[in-house]
């Protein structure tokens, strides 16, 4: 959307950026910090909830110990859709990360983590396969886009440096995944996009920017960065919300509707104050 704004401004009336990635960000360099932020947001959210904290007082330490233990001794769970599935610590961490995309599933994460730590795989067996094993992403399309748009502007040393700040339990898998993608892009042969495409988009188009508090891949810092060069931009952050804000609650939908009707006027965001933190189970 941002690139279209840059290339075809005269053809656009108004813009909605829902869970955005500013063009100037070098995606792969930011992924370790973004992923760590996603876990931190979950654990801080639970600690701030009286019910969640009372029920799962050691959630963060339990999670990281569980990653270590399952990497040392993986288990096999019976997935509701796919049958027997091997689960190690890295797989568990990836599943928690992906669960944070889905607003409706976020409240179940503390309970699911604690269940696994107790040898109970009820929740994860119902939600693991549908999120992790469905082959609904084209790897060819992914690498054709990402190798040219982002990895071409990254070095192997950049990736190693980026992973330094992660918790030691999840750092090795993150770095290994980044290095694998880096090597694949070296073989993929995709040419880098023009360098202008990696510059900030400067625009006066009316732009509504939506950001979810729990979004694991495009955090609020992305939205704030995009806003800096959008002179008629309106940014709203929504609590208890994952990736993709629209259609998760009546409040963002009302704001979107108001913006579409009058894009030159900042919508009233008072309804955000009525939204609560995740109702952790």
Notes on the structure:
With 281 residues, this protein is mainly α. The protein has three domains: 2-24 and 199-274, Alpha/Beta hydrolase fold, catalytic domain (Rossmann fold), CATH 3.40.50; 56-132, no CATH class; 139-188. It is built from twelve helices and five strands. The chain has a three-stranded parallel beta sheet with strand order 1-4-5, with helices on both faces. Strands 2-3 form a two-stranded antiparallel ribbon. The protein is globular and about 60 Å long.
Task: Output the structural class.
Answer: mainly alpha
Report helical residue fraction.
40-55%
SS summary, helix count = 12
Number of domains: 3
Poorly predicted tracts of residues: none
Mean pLDDT across residues: 97
| Distance linking N and C termini | 36 Å
User: What gross morphology would you assign?
Assistant: globular
The rounded Rg comes to 20 Å
Strand order of the largest sheet: 1-4-5
């Amino acid at each position: 959307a941002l690139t279209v704004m840059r290339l075809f401004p005269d053809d656009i009336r108004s813009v909605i950026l829902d869970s955005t990635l500013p063009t100037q960000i070098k995606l792969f360099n930011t992924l370790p910090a973004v992923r760590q932020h996603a876990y931190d947001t979950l654990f801080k959210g639970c600690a701030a909830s009286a019910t969640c904290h009372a029920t799962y007082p050691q959630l963060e330490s339990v999670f990281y110990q569980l990653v270590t233990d399952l990497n040392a001794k993986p288990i096999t769970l019976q997935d509701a859709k796919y049958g027997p599935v091997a689960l190690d610590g890295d797989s568990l961490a990836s599943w928690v990360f992906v669960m944070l995309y889905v607003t409706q599933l976020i409240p179940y994460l503390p309970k699911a983590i604690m269940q696994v730590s107790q040898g109970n795989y009820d929740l994860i067996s119902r939600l693991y396969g549908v999120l992790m094993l469905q082959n609904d992403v084209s790897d060819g399309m992914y690498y054709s886009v990402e190798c040219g748009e982002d990895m071409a502007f990254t070095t192997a040393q950049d990736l190693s440096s980026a992973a330094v700040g992660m918790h030691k339990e999840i750092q090795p898998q993150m770095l290994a995944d980044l290095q694998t993608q880096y090597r694949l892009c070296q073989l993929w042969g995709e040419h880098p996009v023009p360098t202008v495409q990696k510059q900030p988009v400067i625009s006066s188009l009316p732009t509504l920017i939506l950001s979810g508090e729990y979004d694991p891949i495009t955090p609020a810092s992305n939205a704030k960065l995009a806003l800096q060069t959008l002179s008629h931009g309106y940014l709203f952050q929504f609590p208890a919300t994952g990736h993709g804000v629209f259609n998760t609650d009546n409040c963002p939908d009302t704001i979107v509707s108001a913006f579409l009707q009058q894009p030159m006027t900042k919508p009233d965001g008072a309804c955000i104050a009525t939204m609560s933190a995740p109702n952790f189970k």
